[in-house]
Amino acid sequence: GVAALGGRVIVAGGYTADEWTAMDQAFAWDPAGSTGWEAIGPLPSARGAFAMAVIGDALYAAGGAFEQPGG
Fold first, then answer.
1. Which of 32, 46, 47, 55 could pair with 64 in a Cys bridge, judged by C-beta atoms 3.0 to 4.6 Å apart?
2. Burial letters for 38-52: b for 16+ Cβ neighbours within 10 Å, e otherwise?
3. By 3-state DSSP, what share of the chain in percent is helix, strand and coil, each rounded to 5?
4. How far apart are CA 30 and CA 48, in angstroms?
5. What is the pLDDT of residue 69?
6. Distance from C-alpha of 54 to C-alpha of 70, rounded to nearest angstrom
7. In what order do the strands lie in the sheet with 26-29?
8. How far apart are the C-alpha atoms of 6 and 16, rounded to whole Å?
9. Cα separation, 21 vs 19, whole angstroms
10. Are 27 and 37 in contact (CB under 8 A)?
């Protein structure tokens, strides 16, 4: 998932390119001054193909899957 929160771009989860293994990684990038992506901690569980949204000042993830989409 991808969302913008607090002036940063947040990306999380997804699948590995080689074996469609769900990932639990999350990263943030601050376009106003960052030198690169910063690891911000793991998700509670590995997942991919989910949506992320900001409500107020909180980030939410919904849906997704642990396995390859359609698999």
1. 47
2. eeeeebeebbbbbeb
3. 0, 45, 55
4. 23
5. 60
6. 27
7. 2-5, 8-12, 26-29, 38-39
8. 28
9. 5
10. yes
